[in-house]
């Protein structure tokens, strides 16, 4: 049987993977993640929905990621760079090599597409 060529990004269809940032990356709070990874293709391509409860942690990107915020409010700060507040309907790209912090002020849910570097 051939895989479907159209895949809905739908969190109802599957169970979420639960997680947290690595303990040595947490700056404040107790952020809890839920991820619904609906696509995992050869070559390191991933797509789905991610959600986090409030907290702040260090981030370091080795991959390229497109994000579209569905709900909530977060602050993303690049080391030595700008502070960016993101909320519902904001879209952005984080490129490989980005280092900084992600702080969830209000539980945040985003759609994502990740391409491994």
Structural description of this entry:
By secondary structure, the protein is mainly β. The protein has one domain: Jelly Rolls (Sandwich), CATH 2.60.120.10. The chain is built from no helices and nine strands. It starts with 16 loop residues before the first strand and ends with a strand. InterPro entries: RmlC-like_jellyroll, RmlC_Cupin_sf, UGlyAH_Cupin_dom. Pfam families: Cupin_3 (PF05899). This is Cupin domain-containing protein.
How many distinct domains?
A: 1
Q: Considering DSSP H and I runs of 4 or more, what fraction of the residues is helical?
A: under 10%
- Structural category is mainly beta
SSE topology string: EEEEEEEEE
* Beta-strand segment tally: 9
Distance between the termini: 31 Å
Sheet with the most strands?
9 strands, antiparallel
What is the CATH superfamily label?
Jelly Rolls
State the name of the first-level CATH class: Mainly Beta
Rg from alpha-carbon coordinates: 14 Å
Determine the mean pLDDT.
93
Number of helices: 0
Write the CATH fold name: Jelly Rolls
Second rung of CATH, namely the architecture: Sandwich
Strand content: over 45%
Outline the low-pLDDT stretches: none
Q: Give the overall silhouette.
A: globular
InterPro entries: RmlC-like_jellyroll (IPR014710), RmlC_Cupin_sf (IPR011051), UGlyAH_Cupin_dom (IPR008579)
Domain (S)-ureidoglycine aminohydrolase cupin: 40-112
Protein name: Cupin domain-containing protein
């Amino acid at each position: 049987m051939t895989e479907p060529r159209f895949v809905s990004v739908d969190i109802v269809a599957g169970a979420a993977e639960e997680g947290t940032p690595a303990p040595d990356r947490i700056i404040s709070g107790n952020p809890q993640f839920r991820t619904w990874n609906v696509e995992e293709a050869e070559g390191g391509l991933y797509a789905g929905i991610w959600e986090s409860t409030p907290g702040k942690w260090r981030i370091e990107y080795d991959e390229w990621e497109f994000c579209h915020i569905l709900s909530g409010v977060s602050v993303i700060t690049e080391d030595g760079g700008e502070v960016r507040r993101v909320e519902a309907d904001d879209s952005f790209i984080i490129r490989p090599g980005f280092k900084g912090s992600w702080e969830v002020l209000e539980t945040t849910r985003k759609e994502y597409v990740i391409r491994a570097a």
